[in-house]
User: What shape does this take?
Amino acid sequence: MSSVSAVNSLLSSTATTTPSVNVSSILASSVGASTPGIDVTAAVNAAIYADRASERIWQVEQTTLSSQTSALSAIQTATKALTTDMTTLNTLSGPLSARTVTSSNSSAVLATAATGTVTGNHTVGVTSLASTGSWYSDLSASATAALPDSTFTLTTSTGSATITTGAGVNSLNDLASTITGKNLGVTASVINDASGSRLAIISNASGSAGDFSITSGPTTTTTWNSPPVPSPTTPLGADSFTLTIGAAGSPTTTTIAVTDGETFSQVADDINTQRLGVTASVVTDSSGSHLNVVSSDGTTPFTISEPGFGYTLAAHGANAVLTVDGVPISSASNKVTGAIAGVTLNLQGTTLAATPANLTIASDSTQVSAAISKFVTDYNTALGLVNAQFGATAGSQGVLGSDPTVRSLQAVMLQVLNYVSTPASGTTTVSTLSALGISASNDGVLAVDNTTLANALANNASDVQNFFQGASLNGFAASMNNQLSVFTNPGNGAFTVDLNSISKTNADLAQHVADFESIYIANQQTLLTAMYSKAEIALQQLPTQMAQIQAELGNNTKSGG
Assistant: This one.
């Protein structure tokens, strides 16, 4: 039977004498619209929303699990920071073993102490500092000025070498490279300043082993020129050389002394005044000014010891001489190790025999105080995160309020504050946290009395160390670490187990949601869309059918049947 026939049958069975019935209005009211028809998308979405009721519950659970993961991870991180603090306080190379050294005479002796050095007092007297052997030449006009032919011997603790100038070694620059290249344990360099250039030769090592000498080989000639200096008035360094003149069987040797500050002109006058059979003068050329010595008759040779002349001994290499707690010590360096176990002395100057420097080796209270303060800060951070999960009023607890791991951690953190140190022997002034000035409020939050802590570190540093480390690294720090390791162990600790469980539950819920969407919701969406679309098509045809029905109803009324 067609829909029109069905409606006709229904209406005919209930017909009255009412002249007209608005079937369209009745149908429109039944679908909630002003005109017949269905919003397929809205209808499907409404049905699907209802079907997703269980899925929304799962998603709320996922949100809670995510919050639990974040909160538990934060507590885990804070607790691990606390265990790191305990490890730091429990190591023999940590801040509790750090040392400082105070000197009563810092202008004479400074010192540093290695971690774990025995604390105490020592006296250090310094008679002389270690020095480095060094020589320097008289001024030359420049680093590239020509040098006269000469020969000298440089002798060090590692060997000696004869240096010849004028045969490829023609300037101070060449001479510096040649000397350094001999690998005799010295370094030569050219120093340039406003006055001119000079060669500096310095031992590579301090102490007596670094001492060296420069000696000249005699030169026999009828004409000799000294190394150049910038001008005839350039002052010379203190030195001396010898002139040997005369027949081989009866030579006469004269020492020419050069005092500090003399000039070549004064040296020439000294030579000429002695009438030695040579004539001395000052010659100036493009290289600078030279002392020129020639045989008076132009044929009789003379022997001159050079070029020791022109080189000045600046300092002998010598060992430092000192006493440590009355024991005499010689050191090649001003950095002295081994005199006091674990201590390095840095000699700065000398002391009076009657007043040696006093060195005090003590615990580094700054590092210890910082490490203890960090422990207190990290403890309060971790406990604060834990306490936040357990509100003071009903309904105010955090997402981990029912988590047994967090509840257990809170109990452990509060209980560990009751630790009492028992020394292996004797007595101790620091057996509890309160003896360090560390107190706890009712909810376990710690506070530090810096005055009490400072006094403990200043007067009882060994007791402080014993409290944290015990007789064999089994004190407060180890105790706390052992109890917290139940939670922080990366393999099977409570945090790991708890987080893995939350992660698995979250993954299972995610899979439930994915399966529900792909298996049920997708199928429902297809079925509902098809069903509502079919209904929509039927409703779209109703106006025409209604018109036909109305027409039929109208005809019946007019016929009076």
Remarks:
- Residues 134-315 form one domain.
- The chain has three domains: 73-95+365-494, 101-129+319-363, 134-315.
- The CA atoms of residues 40 and 531 lie 9 Å apart.
